[in-house]
Amino acid sequence: MKIYNIKNVNTFFDVIDQCKGDVLLLTKDGDELNLKSKLSQYVSLTQFFGAGTIPELEIKAKEPKDLIRLTNYLISA
Fold it and tell me: pTM above the 0.70 mark?
């Protein structure tokens, strides 16, 4: 799932934290970072999202219910 223009990064990570399964950030180099990990969240913020907003990212949720949770967040954001 590609996501664009996330302006409230803290709320986005709060939704990630509520997910039951892993939520993976897919990098352009083909790596996968588990966004459920606080260390991965920190690394993601410093390397990919330095401007305080997330212009574009691709994630993969392992659990179908988590995909629904993320989709609902995107609709309401």
Answer: yes
